[in-house]
Every structure is written in C-alpha cells, then in structure tokens.
Amino acid sequence: MLNVKQLSGGYDPKKPIIKDISFKVEKGQFVGILGPNGSGKSTLIKVISGILAETSGSVLIDGKNRKDYSTKELARKMAVLPQLHAHAFSHSVRETVSIGRYPHQNSWFQTWSKDDEEAVATAMDQTGITQYTDQQLDFLSGGEQQRAFVAQALAQQADLLLLDEPTNHLDIEHQRKLMDMIRHEVVYHDLTVISIFHDMNLASLYCDQLILLENGQISSIGEPHEVLKEKHVMEVYHTKVSSYPHPVMPKPQVTLIPDFQEEGQASMTITSKQIKVKDEFVELQTMFPLKTISSAVHNAGFGWFQSFINRSVDKNYMCENAHEELKQYLEKHGFSPSNTVAMMTAVASKHVVIREYSSQVGSIVVAVTAGVGNAVDVSQAYKRVETTHVGTINTWVFVNGTLTDESFMQAMITATEAKVKALAVENIQDNISNTTATGTSTDSVLIAATQNGPFFEYAGTITGIGKLIGRGVFETTRIALQDYKRAKGVL
Length: 491
Fold this sequence. Notes:
Elements: E1 2-9, E2 18-25, E3 30-34, H1 41-49, E4 54-61, E5 64-65, H2 71-77, E6 78-81, H3 93-98, H4 114-126, H5 142-155, E7 160-164, H6 172-189, E8 192-196, H7 200-206, E9 209-214, E10 217-222, H8 224-227, H9 230-237, E11 241-245, E12 252-256, E13 275-277, E14 281-294, E15 301-312, H10 322-332, E16 340-345, E17 353-359, E18 362-370, E19 375-376, E20 393-400, E21 402-403, H11 405-425, E22 429-430, E23 435-436, E24 439-440, E25 444-449, E26 455-456, H12 464-488
Parallel strand pairs: 3-8, 3-9, 6-7, 7-8, 15-16, 20-25, 21-26
Antiparallel strand pairs: 1-2, 1-4, 4-5, 9-10, 11-12, 13-14, 14-15, 14-25, 17-18, 18-20, 19-24, 22-23
Helix pairs in contact: 4-5, 11-12
C-alpha cells in the first residue's frame, strides 16, 4: 500500500528534519509513530502526504509515486488529519464533515449524491457526533472538534489514513471509542492507517507495527513488543521506564519511573515488632506501600499495599462469596480494601509465629500461621473428593530490599519449597492417602518488599536472599507446626 524510500525533508531544504527514512506499510495495517518532541513525527506525516516537499527519496502509494497523482486522485487515495486545525470562519459540524467528500465531486457540491450523504452520516455516527450536526464547530469543546475532523477524514473514504495525534483533547472513553472504531475499519475494511501518538501504551494496544523516531531517523521499527523494550525507550526518551505486559491484551505497556522518592521511603525497614497480633487477625501496616505478590483471598497477584491482614475464622467457615464478605470485613474494621492484602486461616491469631532473619546480604521478617487438620499430599490430591476448607498455612515474607519480578517469583517458589520441607520433617500426613502432606487445600503465600536497600535480581536457593528465605520459612513453619501439635495434644 505505502512504500517510503530513503525519505528526507522538512521546512528548510538545506536542513532536513527527517533523514533517510524507509519503511513499508501493507494494506489493512495500523502503524503508530512514536518519538520525543522534536523527533520529526509531524514532519514525517507532512512529507509523506506532500504538505511538505521531500528533499530526497520517494513515497509510493499502490506502487505509484505520490507526485504522479492528481490532487483529487491523491485525495481519494489518502486522507490526512493534521495536528492543528485553523479555520478562519465557522462551519457547522455537518459542513465540516462534508468537506471530506470534496475529492469525490466533479464540481463543488453540484453532484452531491446518495453515496456522499451516506458517507457523511456514517462518519458522524462512527465518531459519535451526529447530535452536533447543526452546531457551529467553534462552539464545541476541543475533543468534540477533534472528533469532527476525524469524521471529515473518514468521510473522504480514502484507502490510506494519516493521523497526527487523533486522540488529542479526548477523554479516556472517547479515546477508546475512537481507537476501537479505527481498529474496526483496519481489521474489517482493510483501511490502512499511519498515526502519530504521544501515548505509547495506546499505540501498543491498537497498532500492528510501531516506528520509534529519534532526531529525524528511525531508532526502532517492528511489532509493539519489539519496539517498546525498556532499553529502546530509555535510550530515545532519556528517562527511566519499566515495560510490562497488559493484563488483558498480549501487548506491552510502559510505565514512567520517577527519580523523586518521598522522604523516609528510602530508609524504610520492616521489623517483627511492627506486626501486631489482635484477637481476630494478625496485622502489619506500613508507612509506605510495599510491592507485593501473593495468593491471598483479597488482592491476590502483584500490587502495592500498605496493610496486610491474616484473619482468623472458624474452621467451619463457609461463605458463598468469601471475597465480598472479606471486603466488607475489612471496611468494618477500618481498612481500605484497595490498599490491603488479606488472607484467612482457621488458626487462631495468637498462634502466629513471627521471626526475623538477617545475614550479610540483607534481612527479612517471616510470619506463619500453621494448622494441618486438612493436610493434603499434592501428588494424591486428584484422588480426593471433598468440600473445600479454609486454608490453614499462611506464610508472610517481608524483604528489606529491592526485588525484580523474577526474584519475586523465585521467592514464592523458595518459600513454598521450604514450607513443604518443614511438613516432611514434622511428619505431617494426608489422612486420606496416608502419605506425607505438602500443604493444606488453600494455603496462601505472600512475598512483599520495601523496594529500597539491597538489590536482589534473583531469589532462588543458590542466592543469599533465597537462602535466607528458605531458612526463615522452614524454621518458622516448623515452630508453627509444633505449636499446632501441642495445641492438639500431639506433642
């Protein structure tokens, strides 16, 4: 569809802004252009469209040089939505959108047809501006004006659409609606789109390919996961970022990492004395959020939290919606549900075992509640037919240091292995299979880190922090199990 070959150009023929740019866009593709301010994004669109003249190189549309098209022929092939719209006099919204039909007229509006009418109506409906049909453009908000100009470009019904920040001035709902609509046209009607974005996350979600510009040249080109790598983004934008997968879509997202850190956060340390044992729960509240991964009942997975609750419930606790019941419980006791990780256990909170461990690599705090009345051998679990009970081994590990996502996952594995070893040493049995138990039916594990202090890239058992976690969880779990046995009269 579009073939850009060694394209250079700009406002001054002697000083080109874009230099030697080459790329191809197939029909039915959505390509996003990214780059910092002054990198040449808008200039590239203008040179491709012919608004600015190229100093060298060429632009081919369907194999034909752009210069070989007449003005109307080119307009039927390519529609352009520039970044800024200067209008010397006011039009109604419908009149503004109707201008997009100019390339299809033999003489100005003298051959207005049913197809023209349908194209305008469809474009206005697609962009959600039908209700503004007779209103003057000047009286609309910036976002509403932007949608009117997008509708104008769509009414042109060109095969290639060039957009310069189409979501500019739009709120999040209208961004989503507009981008969904454009993506729909790309997928189902083979529209080819090249669009400039400042929001690289939005570009990642909707584009097939991304082009990252730096100083008027291509720094990186490819699929979003190839372009939005932390290294590429940091080199071009000169700022620290983190790249992570979108929670729903198979697309990367990028987060800015501020240099600023609040006073006191850099010196925050978790100690065993900060964990409070109440009648109904074990509680830790911190001055700053901790980065956390857990299999908790409430707020499982990755997140940042300041409150940590291990709630004791009756061993026969049953609830159709335990998540909602626990949320209400937190609210009743003054905890913010969005800022709290909460577990439940059938072990009384007074039986929690809390220990601190330190070595030359760093320090951790471990807290364990352990009851094994419903102990299970995971290798034999498929043979069991029973109702779900409340899990009774809950493990907290607080790390005074900085963990990577990889080390968080390894810490979870290390803590789980240590728990299993403790069960084996204490000879805890699965009463149904009569084999050594590996846990209970719904155990929970939490790893939380202050994200300041020592940096731990890995947390497996070969590492210093992994050894500390392994020892801490093993010893603390054994003590908790022995306490459980004493309470049951086994010891």
